[in-house]
Amino acid sequence: MKSLSGLRGALVASTFVLAAVVALACTPPAPKKDGGTNNATAGATAGATGGATAGATTGGTNNGTAGAPGMTAAAAGSECSQYANGVCEKAGEQSETCVSVRSLSEVMSPKACAAGLADMQFTVGKIDELKGKCAELANKLCGDIGEQSQTCEMVRKVTPNFPPDRCRDMLSQYPQVLAELKAQEERNKPLSAEKQALIAADDAPAFGPKEAKVTIVEFSDFECPYCTMAASVTQQVKEKYAGEVRFVFRQYPLPFHPNAHLASQAALAAGQQGKFWEYHDKLFQNQKALTRADLEKYAQELKLDMAAFKKALDDKTFAAKVDSDIKMGGEVAVDGTPTMFLNGERVANPTSFEVVAQMIDVKLGRAPAPPAAPGGEPGHEGHGHP
């Protein structure tokens, strides 16, 4: 069993990995993204304004406000809320600092809250010191991974949004964080010629000429909502680049989608009768209805040989083929759906036709390759899950 510190280290090290995957993908649930407001001016203003008032009242003025024995609970709550809000605005709502202060403020005395407000600038300064850890973390990682790498771009994008204590924890677990990010950087590299040939082989449904200058391979799940968006992209590619692009569809049903594996088998059974793409469209159009009865209904609508179709499902004729695609996906670091490769390069957002079309046009010589973004510029988006 992992120790608590070891488990925490694993979670800390995984933060960047979770932040760097594609914009829209079906993956296991991810932690809520930290995104506390980083507004030093607001925090300082709250501290200066509230502090002046609190300082005057606690200093002995007889206006009966903060710190006075006769202070009402509402007034005390207001002072403590102001203090907690000022800290959280600076540190980030999801930070441990904010969570701790909010908890403590519920039991702090009015005098303590007023004193905190009076000296808010000290607290702001300490939080700024902690935030310096985020810059230190980003600089250290980019130095070890490479300033011009995609991973460095991602690191410089997301670290300013981290609560300061997270950066401190990552620095304390630096070897593990660095190892995971190096693995991520390796994952972002184009596939080798051997792996490109493996995933583009003729043993999967495809359209377009084999000699096309552009080959796209998608790993998809019929129960993943984001794959429905990617299916729209596929149709647009088919229409706009007819005869210029080869598109290969690989099965990658995720284990937490209960109907996905059987749906993949059914699609391959339809493909055996020459109707894969028609059946593919049916499944994505009816994604919330993928039971065995639903699958048979779609087969009937396409006028398939129902005896042969049912026998393929009963005998699990294509189950091994689906499992083979899943294993193949693991060999090219597929960790969610949709995952799309274009001439061996991982597509950053396969749910965006604009992104895919831009890559195709570059490969066809119709558009210049975009310049590499310098380290520090955003290059990737975060992701969600169904």
Low-confidence stretches: 1-13, 31-76, 372-386
Q: N- to C-terminal separation?
A: 30 Å
What's the average pLDDT?
81
Class derived from helix and strand content:
mainly alpha
CATH homologous superfamily title of the domain at 193-351 = Glutaredoxin
Main sheet summary: 5 strands, mixed
The helicity comes to 55-70%
SS element count, helices:
17
C-alpha geometry: elongated
Any overview of this molecule?
This protein is mostly helical. Among the domains are: 40-118, no CATH class; 193-351, 3-Layer(aba) Sandwich (Glutaredoxin). It contains 17 helices and 5 strands. The protein has a 5-stranded mixed beta sheet. Helix 1 runs parallel beside helix 9 and helix 12 runs antiparallel to helix 13 (276-285).
